[in-house]
Design goal:
seven-stranded parallel sheet, Glycosyltransferase_grp1, Glyco_trans_4-like_N, six-stranded parallel sheet, Glyco_trans_1, alpha/beta, hexosyltransferase activity, glycosyltransferase, elongated, Rossmann fold
């Protein structure tokens, strides 16, 4: 199958969408498909990567005449399906949807972000989701991400959930399990962006430490970088907190090594559409604490793969509970080590997208 992906953001930019789309392309190529990508992200030439770039304020990944360029590439390449990847607001990606419609190509649109009320109202006002006439097939990366889309799209437009993918073999824990003790290492991994509320993560760790039973030593490592790093460092200094380390960005191999030393992984962002870092931790055998209303709830069940909370207090209590209960922590870790989140494995994800491609092809042929 000839697949053409369209994404505002792509390598060498590093982020959730960029890495996930790159991994999807690699997995589809390994499965024997002919796969290319069109992006508005500048970078070095790469095989199968078409870069449509323009000098824009703040290096925004968009092109003022992107639709015309996309139509030209789609006409030349003649793919069997166009797979568009969008975030909350992705102008270049929606140009890809328009271009595919004009060329008459089957189109799948994956939404990688969680729509907040403002974003949902924007799409509702633009009436973007009149998809039945265009024969588009929509997907989201989690049930949490799909819910606001379904409310905007309406009952006549199905929005399928196809999980983000992970090479589970690369995260499977090696060696013996950590022996639960009263020295508890809490880990968080992610981009330190204001929308992720990283300072609130520090306050969460403080609250959890204050609730942890006497005799338990809590320390934390927060991996990542971003515009909120300075604010976080100032908070640590002002509170004289010396038990939280912020080593910066890690490679995947470094993250694997860190997870091998972790007792608890925390992913507290309320609007997390999926939570790839949390999935990596779960696959590595680490108990996960996350928001029940986030995409992490798709692969973490309370008391099984970790603990979920809806509020700040519930999350702080969950971290404190795991820290103070080595038997519970050990049982969850053993479950995570002995089982795999198969529905997030690449074979299952590829099968899910192939079904969506078939639906898009059927819808496209029905319009002709």
């Amino acid at each position: 199958m000839r697949i053409l992906h369209v994404s505002d953001c792509y390598l060498p930019r590093l982020g959730g969408i960029e890495v996930q789309v790159a991994d999807l392309i690699r997995s589809q190529r390994e499965a024997g498909h002919d796969v290319e990508v069109v992006t508005a992200t500048p970078g070095e030439p790469l095989p199968g990567v078409h870069r449509i770039t323009a000098r824009m304020p703040f290096d925004l990944p968009v092109h003022p005449r992107g639709t015309g360029h996309l139509i030209r590439i789609m006409t030349q390449r003649s793919p069997d399906v166009v797979h568009v990847h969008t975030g909350a607001v992705s102008p270049f990606a929606w140009m890809g949807v328009l271009a595919a419609h004009r060329v008459g190509l089957p189109t799948v649109v994956t939404v990688h972000s969680m729509w907040d009320p403002v974003t949902a109202n924007l799409y509702r006002s633009l009436k973007t989701w009149n998809w039945t006439g265009w024969g588009l097939v929509g997907t989201a990366v989690s049930e949490a991400a799909a819910r606001p889309i379904r409310r905007v799209a309406g009952p006549n437009v199905p929005v399928h959930v196809v999980s983000n993918g992970l090479d589970l073999s690369g995260w499977r824990p090696e060696g013996p399990a950590r022996v639960p003790s009263d020295e508890v290492h809490v880990v968080a991994v992610g981009r330190l962006a204001p929308r992720k509320q990283p300072v609130r993560l520090l306050k969460l760790l403080e609250a959890a430490k204050a609730r942890t039973r006497r005799g338990v030593t809590l320390r934390a490592t927060i991996v990542g970088d971003g515009p909120a790093r300075g604010q976080m460092e100032r908070h640590l200094r002002s509170k004289r907190i010396d038990w939280v380390e912020m080593p910066g960005r890690y490679t995947r191999d470094q993250i694997r090594g860190l997870l091998a030393e972790a007792d608890v992984f925390v992913a507290p962002a309320p609007r997390e559409s999926f939570g790839l870092a949390a999935l990596e931790a779960r696959a590595a055998g680490v108990p996960v604490v996350a928001r029940s209303q986030s995409g992490v709830a798709d692969f973490v069940s309370p008391g099984k793969e970790g603990l979920l909370g809806r509020t700040f207090d519930e999350l702080a209590g969950a971290v404190a509970r795991l820290a103070g209960d080595p038997a519970l922590r050990g049982a969850i870790a053993e479950h995570n080590r002995s089982t795999s989140p198969v529905r997030c494995s690449w074979p299952v994800v590829l099968e899910g997208f192939e079904r969506c491609y078939e639906r898009a092809a059927d819808a496209s042929s029905g319009r002709r």
